[in-house]
Design a protein that fits this description.
Elements: H1 5-15, H2 20-33, H3 46-61, H4 66-82, H5 90-105, H6 111-136
Length: 137
């Protein structure tokens, strides 16, 4: 499975006008489908939603800047490990991210877009998990 970076960018462009609705939907989906992860998050998610939106924008902006992207993801992985995130939490987050993007992308969402986002999330999660594991080892 490979990622078509132009599809990542164009689908994110389709999602962007929805702004904070995107992150609200993401957390609702995540907690509804994975209530066991809710305790890892603050009671009030306003700041967390803003951080997630900023991180998604930074991710898409740096898709081709491997060094910056890797550094960003490693930092996120170390921080998330400090919050108690474990490798087994990442598939749930990925499923909620894909569901959210699909929901807001509308006609821009295709099987190829989903394949690209799934591939990108695989890199994101493996990089973050490895960085988090380095903290707890």
């Amino acid at each position: 499975m490979t990622a078509d970076l132009s599809l990542i960018r164009s689908s994110f462009t389709a999602v962007q006008p929805h702004g904070t609705q995107v992150t609200e939907y993401f957390y609702e989906h995540l907690f509804a489908n994975n209530p066991q992860v809710r305790p890892l998050f603050a009671t009030h998610l306003d700041e967390q939603r803003d951080r997630l939106w900023a991180a998604l924008g930074a991710l898409v902006s740096n898709l081709e800047n491997t060094e910056t992207l890797t550094s960003m993801l490693q930092n996120l992985g170390r921080r998330h490990a400090g919050y108690g995130a474990l490798a087994e939490h990442y598939p749930a987050v990925g499923a909620s991210l894909i569901a959210t993007l699909q929901h807001y992308a509308g006609d821009a969402w295709t099987p190829a877009v989903e394949e690209s986002w799934t591939a990108v999330y695989g890199v994101i999660s493996s990089t973050m998990v490895a960085a988090g594991d380095s903290v707890s080892s």
